[in-house]
């Protein structure tokens, strides 16, 4: 059937490899009859996690002999592992055998390989990484999260264009509101690249709402996307994760203080579970590599089955929205816009 | 008595001005008999918050006619408000009438004025802002938080030297462990300035423990100080505040969901209060401007009485540790170290 979506999964990637990816694929395939999933990896390793009666419908195996290590350098993965599960999964996107691929493998190697195999969209200098974050109202998407450092104003504008297209596709928001990350101190009011990007964004035709500060990502209403350099985005993301984990640690410590607090914790379980659901990083798993001629979704390396399924879901939404082609068109129209400005 | 400490308080600064600063000063003075506090500001405005029987012991008033607005530009404050409470309080540090000053006024104006009046320590190119943050184990200090952007490797080294001296003074840690903020992606592993600072720090004689990522600030044991550029530090700090506020918002929302959860909230109050105490930003109020020939502490603009007292306490500790002179000596010895290297 031509309307079917085929997703290639790097089944060896991540901290848990096939023990997570295979069960996630089985469940996802059974719940989504319009999707076919290809498990890419060492066939014997994958078979260990498959049911005895063999492969269920719409799940297949593509053997790949090598595995990219979680700490392996991008250069080593790119040059030395041409038959890795990661590389083969990306190759399948290139050849059209798959509509997208999902990997929990290491980000550096994934970005380098995807960029080498798929190439960037014309007009995009640097691919970027984007993910959704929980917010007081709705969700906020942030990019870049570490693919680029020292981004200039043109790069930041490209991030905004790509991010807006993705959020439209995935969230169904027609004109997502874009903010540019900056700091509040009046004296300096941002670095040069940010000031220049501010002007570019004002003239971009995007729904640009101006500067946003670090706390706006989580608190400000009327903000769908926050654009920043990858070094800064990565620090913001990791700092946020750190604070959330610290609070969870202290909350757990306080509830375990004595028998009484233990009892209260039991009573409070539904409340705590609802809180956890709201900010559960597993629900937000699945970062997209944008700006490539093909769809690549990065799962968190430590993802469990539920989290990996979310990443598959993101890939599927991007395929359904034809995101790579839409970004190609948007970037081309931005280039025209700039040329005629 | 010569052993007495005199602190000048910008009583008009912050969102709440004298309504917070005056009561904080009264309580602090009564609890700390070795401290004299000078309330700097419009005398009539201050009198409104003083007891009818007049000034208590060790609290005095220094009239200053003008007030720097919370959104006023540093240039306007510096050039146009020579009799502002902020400026006069800093002047008192310059003339030796006060050992330190504390202001909840706007950061940009405070930094610009302090830098203009007090000047930087020889060998320090740029003053920096540092504060303590809660962490799973102990506290972590971070600088710079927004005074500098585009910091080069030498600046980052200076931040580390100054931060280490402050933490030794305030926390009593002999050789505080210094980390350098970076991102984890192997492919790029940091911007040039960070890579160069890494080498400088390895040869600095400081207790340098290597790169730290955003989450390490809150989670990593064996880390006392995290050094970074002000743009990045500001984003990290604000993002962290945003996440903490979002979690509090959701927790409150979930506890208010229905009568049962309300009841559980009542039972859980002691636990929630302990949690709040651990991460209460009021407890961490008081950021220090480092690298100046004098001690200036910045309180959060929205500080309440308790929080402002914490900022006064920081100033007092810095005076007791003679921090400005110690940093002067440390920077001089670093310069010698580098010259002989």
Task: Write a brief structural summary.
Two copies of one chain form a homodimer. Chain A has 341 residues and is an alpha/beta fold.
Strand content of chain A: 15-25%
Largest sheet of chain A: 11 strands, mixed
Number of DSSP E strands of chain A: 11
Shape of chain A: globular
Name the poorly predicted regions of chain A.
Answer: none
Q: Largest interface here, residues on each chain? A: A-B, 69 and 69 residues
Radius of gyration of chain A: 21 Å
Give the SSE order of chain A as H and E letters.
Answer: EHEHEHHEHEEHEHEHEHHEEHH
Question: Whole-number average pLDDT of chain A?
Answer: 91
Count of DSSP H/I helices of chain A: 12
Q: Into which percent range does the helicity of residues of chain A fall?
A: 40-55%
Can you give a write-up of this model?
With 341 residues, chain A is an alpha/beta fold. Chain A has helices at residues 18-31, 43-47, 74-80, 85-95, 107-118, 153-171, 192-202, 216-219, 230-255, 259-279, 305-320, 323-340; strands at 5-10, 35-41, 59-63, 100-103, 128-134, 139-143, 177-181, 207-212, 225-227, 287-290, 295-298. Chain A is globular and about 60 Å long. In chain A, strand 10 and strand 11 (295-298) form a beta hairpin. An 11-stranded mixed sheet of chain A has the order 3-2-1-4-11-10-5-6-9-7-8, with helices on both faces. At the A-B interface, helix 5, helix 8, helix 9 and helix 10 of A face helix 5, helix 8, helix 9 and helix 10 of B.
């Amino acid at each position: 059937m031509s309307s079917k979506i085929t997703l290639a999964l790097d089944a060896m990637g991540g901290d848990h490899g096939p023990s997570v990816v295979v069960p996630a694929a089985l469940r996802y395939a059974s719940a989504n009859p319009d999707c076919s999933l290809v498990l890419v990896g060492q066939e014997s390793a994958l078979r260990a996690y498959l049911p005895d009666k063999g492969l269920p419908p719409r799940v297949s195996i593509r053997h790949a002999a090598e595995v990219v290590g979680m700490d392996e350098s991008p250069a080593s993965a790119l040059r030395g592992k041409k038959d890795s599960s990661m590389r083969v999964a990306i190759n399948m996107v290139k050849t059209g055998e798959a509509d997208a691929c999902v990997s929990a493998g290491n980000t550096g190697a994934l970005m380098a390989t995807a960029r080498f195999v798929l190439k960037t969209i014309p007009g995009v200098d640097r691919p970027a990484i984007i993910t959704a974050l929980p917010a007081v109202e709705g969700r906020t998407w942030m990019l870049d999260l570490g693919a680029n450092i020292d981004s200039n104003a043109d790069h930041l504008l490209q991030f905004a264009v790509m991010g807006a297209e993705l959020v439209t596709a995935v969230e169904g928001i027609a004109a997502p509101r874009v903010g540019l990350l900056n700091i509040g101190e009046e004296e300096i009011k941002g670095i040069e690249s940010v000031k220049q990007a501010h002007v570019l964004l004002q003239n971009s035709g995007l729904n640009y709402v101006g500067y946003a500060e670090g706390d706006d990502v989580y608190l400000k209403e009327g903000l769908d996307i926050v654009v920043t350099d990858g070094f800064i985005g990565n620090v913001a993301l990791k700092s946020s994760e750190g604070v959330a984990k610290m609070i969870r640690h202290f909350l757990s410590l306080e509830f375990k203080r004595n028998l009484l607090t233990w009892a209260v914790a039991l009573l409070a379980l539904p409340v705590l579970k609802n809180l956890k659901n709201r900010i559960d990083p597993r629900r937000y798993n699945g970062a997209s590599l944008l700006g490539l001629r093909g769809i690549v979704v990065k799962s968190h390396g430590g993802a469990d089955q539920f989290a990996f399924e979310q990443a598959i879901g993101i890939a599927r939404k991007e395929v359904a929205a034809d995101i790579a082609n839409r970004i190609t068109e948007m970037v081309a129209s931005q280039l025209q816009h700039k040329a005629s400005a």
